[in-house]
Amino acid sequence: MTLLFQLSVVFPLAAAQAWMPAMRWLGGIRIEFLPALVPWFSFTVSRRRAITLAIIAGFAQDALSAAPFGLTAVAFVIAAIVMTGLRDVLARELPPVQLVAGAFTSALAGFAACCVAGFSFGGLFKVFVIAVITGVLTSLLFFGIEFARLFRRIA
Amino acid sequence: MILVRLGTPFVKLGDLIPVVQSRRQLAKQNDQLRSDNDVLRQQSRAIVETGLENQRLRQLLAMKERLPYKTVAARIIGRDASNWWKSIQIDRGSNDGLRDNLAVLNADGLIGKTISVTRGEARVLLITDPNCKASAVIQETRDTGVVAGSDRAFARDPHCVMTYVAREAKIKAKQVVITSGLGGVFPKGILIGTVTGASLNQQTGMYQDIQIKPSVDFNKLEEVIVITE
Fold first, then answer.
1. Which fold has domain B134-215?
2. ipTM of the complex
3. Which CATH architecture has domain B69-128+220-227?
4. DSSP A102-154
5. Which of B85, B130, B156 sits opposite A65 (nearest CB)?
6. In a domain, A8, yes or no
7. Chain A: residue nearest B159 by CA?
8. What is the pLDDT along chain A (155 residues), one digit of tens a residue?
9. Distance between terminal CA atoms of chain A?
10. Domain of residue A58, residue span
11. CB contact (8 A) between residue A64 and residue B80
12. B81/A18 Cβ within 8 A
């Protein structure tokens, strides 16, 4: 997988994340795609590239947000370092592992945001809910990519 | 006579040829009409959209003319990519005279303030964000306070809270809240929203916290006005 292809995934997803409206039926939460990408990079590419892509994904999200620039990038990098360090001992092809990895990345980004915006019980619950949603999205992302690879081999 | 009778079926068959041809032509014409219909429907939708945009821009223009300030109209080109901040991106920047801390509004009322301005774009922190604070006054009673976004984690529709309102103030639902002009960012008299409820501050009990429903529907924002001077 070339770096260009990986970058071509990051930027459209960042734009989609900024463009998509909040889900009012879920209390105004919006889906975050970029935290789901970080585990994918961490589990599939070299450590250095995974960290580079995590920085780029974090900066892309911060550029399209009112968050202090670099805050999400720091959270994504920490997540990438932890996951690339543990990937040899993790059964990374299993959906529950992918779910936890996505939730971990999202939770780290949420905690970083809470450090700036302030902690509250509601805020922590929101971190949990968003982490679960992102975890599920991460598993779906891995499944989708594997399915696409399989389809390409068959075709 | 016999030859004429034998030839009749062929003559009739020959008469059918134009019919067959016309069916082909009809099918072709049908395809052409379907295609034209698609184009016209698309144009019709575009005209409806233009009409709606025209209506919104007329409202914005009317407001712009009413305001005694120098203003810049802008389109919204993006929302906040994060779940933790409430902001929007607009298509005007420092090239159009924008800078940080300028009031942003539309025909319905106050939207927020500019926080980071580049040459061609600017980010607007919405009044529903807890970090965006505006000095406000209740129009009827003239009680003052500070309006900021609610920090409630889950809310279907974003709302604001007005704090530091005197505990003896008589607050009723549906009272109108406007900007007071203090603070230097938001000019006086911009509509913020209406009161939906009030309670004593839970931490100190020294003042009231008033729930405010913003007059602007933040889920349907498309064009805004920025007050530059």
1. Thrombin, subunit H (2.40.10)
2. 0.78
3. Beta Barrel (2.40)
4. HHHHHHHHHHHHHHHH---HHHHHHHHHHHHHHHHHHHHHHHHHHHHHHHHHH
5. B85
6. no
7. A28
8. 577 887 888 888 888 888 887 777 777 788 888 999 999 989 888 889 999 999 999 999 988 888 888 899 999 999 999 999 888 888 778 888 999 999 999 999 999 988 887 777 778 888 898 999 999 999 998 898 888 888 877 77
9. 19
10. 30-154
11. yes
12. yes
